[in-house]
Structures are given as structure tokens and as C-alpha cells.
Amino acid sequence: MRRVHAELRGFGHTVNRKRVERLMRLHRIEGRHLRRRKRTTVPDRLAPPAPDLVQRAFTAGQLNEKWCGDITYVQVGGSWLYLA
Q: Which residues fall in a coiled-coil region (predicted)?
């Protein structure tokens, strides 16, 4: 709705934002909500790959034999939190 209103004003039409909203709702026109993707990892192409120390075998024969971890990015409010 805001883009349509801005476009109409850019073409020189004097129109109220609420009128644009009402007419769009009347004709069942909805705007697309595009989200920007957050790039969280920038790979270093020159760095050697990390060695696979467990050779893709993730089962362990006893406790504390193998450990692994992961990081998840969570958007909270306007900032990103990292959950490990």
C-alpha cells in the first residue's frame, strides 16, 4: 500500500494514503512483503577445510566419547542472537 501510494504521488496524483488502502482492500489487492535475507556466514575461500575427525560416524560407544555443536541465528526484536 505504501509503495502504491508513493508511486501515485510520484506521478503527480494527489491521493490520500487511506483512500489507496480502502480501494486496494475493496478490490482484494495485497502488496507483496519481501524480506531481506540476512547473510550470516562469509566463507573464506582460501582457508583449508576443517578435518572430519569422526569420519561421519556420529554414534558413540560410551559417554563423553564424541562431542559436536551447532550455532543457530535467532532474530529477536531488531537484533540477532546466536544460540549454540
A: none
Spell out a b/e string for 42-75, using b for 16 or more CB atoms within 10 Å of the CB, else e: eeeeeeeeeeeeeeeeeeeeeeeeeeeeeeeeee
Q: Locate 31 and state its grid cell.
A: 502488496
**Helix boundaries (H) for 11-80:** 17-26
**pTM for the whole thing?**
0.39
* Predicted confidence (pLDDT) at residue 39 exceeds the cutoff of 90: no
Residue where the block lists cell 555443536:
69
- In one-letter notation, the amino acid at residue 41 is T
Domain spans of the chain?
Answer: 1-34
Radius of gyration of the chain (CA): 25
Residue 44's identity, in one-letter code, is D
